Amino acid sequence: MSQEIAVVGTAEFTTGFRLAGVREFRNVPEEEKDDDLDAVVEDVLDESDVGIVVMHADDLDYLSRTVRERVETSVEPTVVTIGGGAGGSSGLRDQIKRAIGIDLMAQDEGENE
Q: Per-residue pLDDT averaged across 80-87, rounded?
């Protein structure tokens, strides 16, 4: 069973992914994030055919504590946040490590244990 990549965010954020061939996306206008983002993210996390969810890092601030904890601990689907400047490559490194259980960027084999 193949799984899809889903992108959640504003139309400006999702457009590039759609042009790259991502078929699953949910547009949430900036002015509706406070009211709608929690429900949209929960719906995407509950879809069985989604393996990766991509969100803008700044959108995590709009999520309730419960949904944010679910996003931060979700393994399947794996939630990847991009942008926002904070975290950078170390944030992505942590997300990959959480998703697959090992640090692919470890300098020596002893760091993966």
A: 72
